[in-house]
Sequence to fold (624 residues):
Amino acid sequence: MEENISVLDDVKEKLQFLQRESRLLCNIDPSGSLEKAEEALKLAQKHGFEKDAILARENIAYQFWHQGNLEKAIEIFEETRARRIALKYYASFDWCISNLSQIHWGQGNFDIAFQIIYDAIPLMEETGDEKDKCLCYWAIAVFYYDLKDFERSQENYFKSWNLSNGDPLLDANISAYNLIGLGCCAKETGSTQLAVEYFESALAKCTEYGQQMERARCLYEIGLIFHLQSLYDKATFHLTESLQIRRNFGYVPGLISSLMALSDTEKEKGNFSTAVEMMKEAIALSEELASKTKRFQCYEKLASLYRCLSDYEQALVYLDKFHQLRSDVYGERSNNRIKQLESNFAKLQSEKEAEIQRLINVELKTANDLIKSKNQKILDSVHYARLIQQAILPSDEVLKAHFPDHFLLYIPKDIVSGDFYWTEQIQDKILFAVADCTGHGVPGAMMSVMCSTALTRSVNESGLDSPGKILGKTAAVLSENFSRSQSQLSDGMHIALGCFEPSSMKLTFAASYHSGLLIRGNDSIRILSGDKQAIGNTEEIKPFAETQIQLMMGDCLYLYSDGYADQFGGPDEKKIRAAALRELISANRHLSMLQQKEALLAFFENWKGDHPQIDDVCVMGIRF
Fold:
């Protein structure tokens, strides 16, 4: 008996060594990591150590993922996740959860990715070890970064970073990635020097642990900074080295990112044919990886490259693919998610009210603590609503591609907004809009998703590019949707919509209860008025009038909702009013677009003072 116990102790010790080495080698020596994981699995199965078998299978699944076999990786991670929950085995659960959620995120399954993590965190709290959430916080930080919420991304990177300190395994696995993530957040918020410092610290970690994959990521990010600084030769040098490392390791997601970045650099250098070949390889890899988000990004870049080569036929082919796939990722899923969100929000609200009623006669402090907990759940639900809404808003990259010299002042009254901005490209025309939906907060956000989707349908399904006809079609779509409800809804939207043709500098404008402001030079100021006809649940839809304008270089156009002008404050506690907003825009027209945005924001905050914000704010400025 003593001999058997001694043998099992030796087996356990060897398993611990193999599991640790497999994790440490996962990004340094993938084949070595896989070999040790397979050895650990055989040993664990032979001696009936189920928990060690789970750990070994998760290390194997990680290598399947990075080799591009997503189907097999998901299958294994789902099996081990289910088995862990059945056994209540949550030690190092974050390794399984963060990897599984990242795979779904890469496939465009945003809601599933978040749900996997938020389902797991309460279970991991049962272990009493906060470190078991380290990789989950890192994955959440990555997701928020992709959704352009850099503040919450940075917050979660710091959570993960703090938990990894003092733990050699976590430090080796995640610290470099946390530093890289913090660098990316700093870069996106304009702190380029701080970003470089984070990337250099990450490189030091890579050297300490011999991590080539993390080194490739650092080189990639530094290359992007050189690209932003127009130092294209330096950018190419760093991006090429990053690409080569990722090729050597067969890391498909990283290969796609490196190819896309190098393609952008080659485009800037005028090497369009080389850039096209890189994008074609990236698309092929995206198809192998089954990554919809990567693929539609590639389609958009390839369409732009073909336009540079004057191959408009191919440009249109890939632009159509881009719109179709992006609609698949965002449009349909957004509609499904908004229904789920509405149900979840109503349920949480009902639970909160029931809980308050039950606790009326309970000791005050205990009741207050419980109410705070319920309020936090509702707040978390609203934050999730913001992620859904952000998924339908155009990215900064899309706006910059369409309008290189622009600003966007977007200030929701609550966490989510009834205002939204929108853009689509159809052939050589760029459509853009600022809209204000009924309400604000979660109800307004629900309306904004519905209205944005209706706009996109009017363009992509009906092939419309006339602003007046698009508004008419959108009004018909929304009226049809509302008519299906047994309740009498009076919701809808007010909107200003423009169509810009870069080749002819022609602008066509139409609006519903909104107006635009066109400024030319130092003298000409023109108000572009719209129809006094709401878009929503209306019995009769009249044609929307259009205004056509021949633009000149340097003309500035401003679209805005009524939230800015309706804000109370100032010395007499009155509204700013639309006339004052137009005067403020006119007074600052000589400034750069970024400076104009800062001036508008500063005036708004100063006027508001201690008054609450009464409505959502959205102001878009474009210099043609």
